[in-house]
Design a protein that fits this description.
47% strand; 10% helix; binds copper (II) ion; mainly beta; 1 helix
Length: 98
Amino acid sequence: MFAIVIAVLAAAPAVAGTVHIAMKDVAFSPAKIAAKVGDTVEWANKDFVAHTATARDGSFNVDLAASKTGRTVLKKAGKVEYYCRYHPTMKAEIDVSK
Ligand SMILES: [Cu+2]
């Protein structure tokens, strides 16, 4: 089992990155991003109210009070739509490639 984990890590692309998304004026900015499996997405809530980044497929749910920062690691390829549970007009998507 441990050896399999090592093999997977060794096969992974060189460096995973971090993509930054702001929650500002009750919107995600940028609303559309492209990222790769293994990348970290970090949301920074710059508003004075709470927001969430909630994936429609259930793959992540980041709940952020005002001025907080939270993150998730992208685990699978595909397009992920997400929204804020408190403000249904806040919508965005991440296009995750391998
Ligand atoms: Cu919100």
